[in-house]
Specification:
The protein is of the alpha/beta class. Helix content is 44%, strand content 16%. The chain has a single domain, classed as Rossmann fold. It has 8 helices and 9 strands. Helix 1 crosses helix 8, helix 3 runs parallel beside helix 4 and helix 4 runs parallel beside helix 5.
Length: 250
Amino acid sequence: MRGLGGAVVVVTGASSGIGAEVARRLDQEGAALVLCGRSEERLQRVCGELTGDHVAVAGDLTATGEADRVVTTALEWRGRLNGLVNNAALDHVAPLLETTDAEMREVFEVNVFAAARMLQRGAAAMSESGGSIVNVTSRLATIGVPMMAFYGAAKGAVAALTRGAAIELAPQGIRVNSVAPGMTRTPLYDEWLASLPDPAASEAEVAAKIPLGEIADSGDVAAAIAFLLSEDSKHITGANLPVDGGYTAA
């Protein structure tokens, strides 16, 4: 994809799942990567699969100053920042009426406020040269699912932030888009599936509800993110790209 070779890109939540696959895809495209995650061990495992230039920054993005530290790492390493993938997230499955204040705050702190701070710091670093920011939302940003109301609300907030930021930052040449995955094969998905009485039947039931008839793998989402980071999408901003096999269009 045009413009990714040599681009300096921060990827948060890069130690597993979609984030790790994004790191692999951008590495193949020739980007120089700053990979962020809570687990140093898991980050180093992902780094061991990469062949291009990369650095790892382990830490909790909800902590004060962490967003600054991540962006400063990129600037001190390469002198610029061209792209940001806001992928770090916290899943939350619980009955609406039983969710505590503390749980609500944690869901929004990780999924909204940490992403917002990364967007602010990343955009400030791109203000003179432009760049591309991709926020990872969810199908739940646009549809309701029992037991996941607060997670969906948080992802909906990120989708709204994407639109507002895209308009405000456009004069600086900064594009802001989001990708909304549907059911996607990741380690978390595999754990959930394995916990069910009949995994094969359950997966077939899930796939049957998707118009394209199959569950995405993390590479499908990573490809969409790479596209939105690249110059191939240079006239796209403020968009939310569903990668869900048509699920939210049905």
